[in-house]
Amino acid sequence: MKVMFFEWSLAILLSIQPLVLALELEMIDYESQHITCSKGLSNCTVKACAGIPIQGCPVDEKGLAVQPVLCCRQGTACRPCLLIRLDIQPRNDQTASYVSVCYTVPQLIMPLCKKLEFTVIPAAPDEQASSKAWLSLLLESKALSFSSQVTVYVCSLHSTVVLPSVDEVCSSASQGVVQECEVPSFNTMIDQERREVMLQVAMEKDSPYQLEMCLQHEHNGMCRAWKEKSVPLHSVTPCMCFQLWWDKGDQRSRRSRSCPFRNNTELFQRNLWENVSVSVVQGQMNSGGAMLSWNLTAPCRVEAEVWPCQRDAGVDKDRCTELGDIRQSLSNDIWRENDRGHWLTPGVFEDVKPGLDLCVMVKVKWKNSELGPFCPIDTRLWHWRWCLLVLLSLMLVGLAGLCLYFLHGKLKRWAWEWHQKECDQLPIRGHVVLLSPPDVNNSVSKLVCELGSSLRARGLSVSVDLWSRAELCSLGPLPWLHSQLQPLDSQGGRALLVLTQAASKKAEDWGQQWDQQGQQGRDIAQGVEEEGEYKRLLQGLSSPYADVFSAALSCIKVDHQQGCAGKRFLLVHFEAHSAKPLSSERGLPELFQGLPLFNLPSQRQELLVQLAIGSKGPGAGIGG
């Protein structure tokens, strides 16, 4: 039964080959590599192989026929295949035989081959003349695709066929069974309330692929990508077309094309007429005569007539009298598309009368009234307008400069107030050691205590030598200072040394004494870090640690020698205690060089910022 089916199918395919290619391909259910034997052959098998030369080819010299078909699985997922028929002519009573069938396409480097094996059944004497044996192979391969050219080789025979294109295959009978034929189906709906044309795509949510769209004017216009599912109603024209396709990652995705507004011209024709424009330029020909050149632009190609006219010099500027009978009709072969997707056609009227106020009128087919007049641009008017624009621009720039100049002071004050507000909101954590000068009196003591209280109110942990007299008497100046400086390394913070004239004088004297002591001074520096040596060093030097201020000077000296001056100590100077603010670079003892100096209260915010930076951890940024 299977043999009769394939004989009938093959006969139909071979007899109506031109009709099949023009309409659709035969669909054959396909499970695996098919080989079918005619009567007189048995044990037919097929397997992949390399090309094998054959001694005595069993195929008739005209016995190769190749036919494109569709291989389907249960009537769906159809792919292009080849149905190959071989007419067998056994020789010398041979029984077991084989033949190689090879094929190639342009993208393959080497041909692919199949080996067909079969056994010849000896025929009775009365059947030898009437019977003719044949083999048919249904060849399915990923190398076969629509529109590809395939060449089949059998022995010395070969046949070349071109598989039909997707557009040829995708007839109504192939929709839904060939994957390449699947295209989005859509319709349009006018939303009068929103003044839009809506695109409704069927089965969009069920598709595994991304929907892509483009919009074009005229069927041969450039299709520009369009991401929206709607089009403003005022921009819809009769020649507007859409292309929709599923993005399958290649360039072979078939598209659905539609121009849905061609039959609804009454609604959208007005949009076309309102977007017709003409640019006109009056010039001179090589012969010296006057000419009027024009470019007509419209969303669609239109049937129209264009003619020159003379505009009236009276009040009615829209009245234009036609000049002669020299109308020009627009033809479809002179239109070209511009960058905006509109269509443009040029024209010129030669040997027009010079010195006249010439314009152009347009009569579009199906429109009752005429369009125009369209007149040349007065270059003198445009020149005057450009000069006025430049003058206004310069005046605006000058006015803006004056406003910025007068607002400079106010802007500066606003910036300072904003900076003050930001500094007040700046969170500060850490430990501060506030050390008094050696000549502390009631006024200085009051300022020191006020500074300590304000810093404590900002959230800092504050230690003031004036508040710690009991501990100072119990421990002594150096151990007490050492115990206060230790938290600075772990918690972050700074030691503030109050600077007065007496403090500067003592720092100079202390520095000279240090230089005179020599090696003993270096021992003192080492002793600052070793509490156990405190008593010995105090006995060995006249009075280096007579107070906390002197102990602080030794710590500052150690920081200088270790290259980290300003890491722990800051200098503060009360402006109320001295009429002239001190400088951080001039007028300071050598020992204080490199330490940040803040004049209070004018530099209060800068001091708070420095303490906030220092409170972020050991070795935080150092200000100057």
How would you describe this protein?
It is built from 13 helices and 31 strands. The protein is flat, with a radius of gyration of 50 Å. The chain is of the alpha+beta class and 624 residues long. Helix content is 28%, strand content 32%. Helix 9 crosses helix 10 (519-528).
Q: How are the elements arranged and paired?
A:
Elements: H1 2-15, H2 17-22, E1 27-29, E2 34-37, E3 41-49, E4 59-73, E5 76-88, E6 96-104, E7 112-120, E8 133-139, E9 149-154, E10 157-162, H3 166-169, E11 185-191, E12 196-202, E13 210-217, E14 224-225, E15 230-232, E16 240-247, E17 256-258, H4 265-274, E18 277-284, E19 290-298, E20 304-311, E21 320-322, E22 328-329, E23 336-337, E24 343-352, E25 358-364, E26 371-374, H5 379-424, E27 431-435, H6 442-457, E28 461-464, H7 469-475, H8 477-491, E29 493-498, H9 501-517, H10 519-528, H11 534-540, H12 548-561, E30 569-574, E31 597-600, H13 604-614
Parallel strand pairs: 1-4, 27-28, 27-29, 29-30, 30-31
Antiparallel strand pairs: 2-8, 3-7, 4-5, 5-8, 6-7, 6-9, 9-10, 11-12, 12-15, 13-14, 13-16, 16-17, 18-19, 19-24, 20-21, 20-22, 20-25, 23-24, 25-26
Helix pairs in contact: 7-8, 9-10, 10-12
Keywords:
glycoprotein, single chain, Immunoglobulin-like, 31 strands, flat, 32% strand, 5-stranded mixed sheet, signal, disordered N terminus, receptor, 624 residues, alpha+beta, disordered C terminus, 5-stranded antiparallel sheet, 4 domains, 28% helix
